[in-house]
User: What shape does this take?
Amino acid sequence: MSELTQVPERDLFAVIGRGITKSFDNLRVLQDMPVNIPRGVTYCLLGPNGSGKTTLMRVIMGLVKLESGDIYILDEPLSRINIVYPRLGYMPQQRPLYPDLTVLENLEFYAGLYGIRGQERIRRIDEVLRVVDLPETKNRITGMLSGGMYQRISLACTLINSPDLLLLDEPTVGVDPVTKQSFWGYFRELTKEGKTVVITTHIMEEAERCDMVGFMRNGRMLAESSPDKLKEFAGLKKQLRMKVADPEGKMAKLVGEGLEVRIEGDILFVDVSDTSKMMEVLDQVKPMDFKVIEPTLESAFLKLAI
Amino acid sequence: MVQTGEVSQSLYRIWSVGLRVIRQTKRDRRTIVALIINPIILMLLIGYAFSGTFTGINLGIVELYSGPVQESVVNHLQASDTFSITYLASESEARKLISEGRIDGAVVLGNNAISLILDGTSPQVAGTITTVVQTGLQAAAAQILGSLPIRSGLPAVNTYYVYGYDLEVKDSVGPALLAVTIFFFTSLNTTIGFLRERLQGTLEKVLVSPLDRIELVSGYILAYMVLSTAQSAITFVILVVGFKVPIGGSLLAVLIIVLLLSAGSLSFGAFLSNFVTTEFQVMQLNPVVTFPQTILSGAWVPIQSIPGWLRPLSYIFPLTYACDALKLTLLKGASLADILYPDVTALVIFFLVTFFMATFMIKKEIA
Ligand SMILES: Nc1ncnc2c1ncn2[C@@H]1O[C@H](COP(=O)(O)OP(=O)(O)O)[C@@H](O)[C@H]1O
Ligand SMILES: [Mg+2]
Assistant: This one.
C-alpha cells in the first residue's frame, strides 16, 4: 500500500499528497510533488504562470487523471473523490457563471446541484449574498455586473453548499483593491469556521497573507510552510539599518564577531538572527538612528528559485 | 429507503440543469427568434417556391377525341396564362418531346380517358399541370351535370409520369422540414452550449459537484425536449393552418419521433463540442455534419432518386429515418406500430450511441 495509508494524522489535513506526477503529452507538468494542506487554514499555491498550480488543483479534484502518486482529500482517497464533491467548493480561473442568467438564477442552479431546495435554498442564497455584500444584485443579469461584482458572485456560488474545502484559482486577479481587501476578510471568516481555503496566485503579497504557502516552480514543490518559516528556510534574516558616527570602526568590530555586515556611507546593514541578537548589536553600536528591515517573501522566493 | 432518496436527488439535479438551460434559452432573444421564426420562414419559402404559380410552361395537347368535356379542358388550359400550348399529333410524339426537354408535359384527350404525360423530374410543373387539368374537368363536370340527367360520360383522368415519382412536394417537405429543423437547431445549439460551458469554466465547476456526466446530458435533453415540442407544435400549426396539409396518424407517434430525434441530435451536438474550441469553428463544422444529412435524408428528394452508391449514406443518417417516420405518420396516417421498424428502432439506436459518446467524451476530455 501507499505510504499515506500509514500517516496517523491524515485526517488533520484537508489535502495530503505524495509523489504527484502528471504529464500532458510529453510535457511534465507536475513532478513527484508532495502537498500538505492542514485543515482550517488559508493555503496559497504560489508560483509563476505555467508552474502547474491550476493543474495541481484539477488533479486534487479528480478533474485530471493522476499519472502516479497518492492523494487524500478530506480523508478520502482520490479514487473516492465522488463522495467528497458535496463538500468541495471550486472556483475555476474563468469565473464559472452563466452571464445570461440573473444572479439569483445562477445561485438557484448551483443550489440545485447540491440538492438544496425550498426554504433552505432561499436562506442559503441570502446568506452567501450577504457574505459577499451584494444582496441587492439578485435580479440583475450576471453578465452586466462589473468585474469585481462578477468575481464576488462567483465566490457566492462557490459558497452555496457551505463547502469544507474551497479551491479558488487566482481569486483576486483583475479585482479592484477594495474587493481584494474584502476577499481576504471572507477567507479569514471562513477559516474561523474551520473551513480550509486554498488559493493560487503568482503575487507575493497575496501569499504573505496566507497561513501556509506552497512554492511551486516548473511542476515542483520547492517548499511548503508558513511565510515566516519560509523566510527562515531560505536563510533570510532580519536586517538592522543603522546610522552611525564611525562606520568603518564599528563595522570591523561586528565582522570580527562573525556577523554579516554591509556599508553604505555612514549606514551599516547587519543581518540578525533573532531579537536578542538585535538588542545586543544595538547596545554595542549605539546608533544615532536605526530601522528593522523584515525580509520579504519575494527575496525568499528568489533565493529558493535559483 | 436510501435508493429512492438517491433517485429523487438525481432527478432534482437533472431538473436543475434542465431549468437552467430553458432559462438561458428564454433570455437569448436570438435563439428564441430562431426557434420560432426559422421553421416558419423555411416553410413559407419552400411552400411558395414549390407551389407557387408558374408561367411559360410548355404544354403539348393531343386531341384524339373532341367532346364537350375535352373542349372544356382545352378552353381551361388556353385561358390560363401559365401555359404556352403546342398541338401535337400523337402520344408518342408527346413522350418524345418530353424526353428531349422540348415540352414540360402533355395532355392527351381521348374518348374515355384524359391522360397526363408528365415530367417527374419537375414535380412542381407536373403538379401545376395536374391541377389545371383537374379544375378544367371539374368545370366540365359542373356543365354536364347541369345539362344531363345522369352522371355519365365523364372521362377518368389517368396520370403517367415519364420520370421520377409522384412527388407531393409541399406536402412531403413539411414533415421533413420539421425533422431537419429539430436536428439542425438542437445539435447546433448544444455544440455551442457545451463549448461555452467549457470556456466559461462552468463545466468544471459543475463536474466538481454531486452532478455526474449522465445527469448533465440528461438535463440538457430534458430542456430540449420542451423546446423541440414547442418547435414541433409551431411547425404543426403552420402545416395544418398555413398549408392545409392533411394530418392523419397518431400525434403520440409524432411526438415520440420528435423527442427521440431531439435527444439524439442533442447528444450528437454535445459530442461534437469536444472537437471545437471557438464558436467560429462550430459554424464551420456544423454544415459539414448537417448538410449531407439534410440532402440525403429524403427531405428534399426521395431516397429512390439518390444514386445507389450514395444511398448507404442515406441509410446511416438518422435524419432519414426521422423524415420517413414523420412523413408516414403525418401524411399517411401510420401508427406507432407501423413505424417501429426500421424508423423508431434506428432513432433509438442513434440516441443510445450518441448519448454514450457524449457522456464518454466529457469524461475523456477531463481525464
Ligand atoms: N490540458 C492541458 N493540455 C496540455 N497542456 C496543459 C494542459 N493544462 C495545462 N497544460 C500545461 O501545463 C503547464 C502548467 O499549466 P497550469 O497548471 O495552468 O499552470 P499555472 O496555473 O501555474 O499557470 C503549462 O505549461 C500548460 O501549458
Ligand atoms: Mg493557472
Remarks:
- The CA atoms of residues 204 and 298 of chain A lie 6 Å apart.
- Chain A has two domains: 3-232, 236-304.
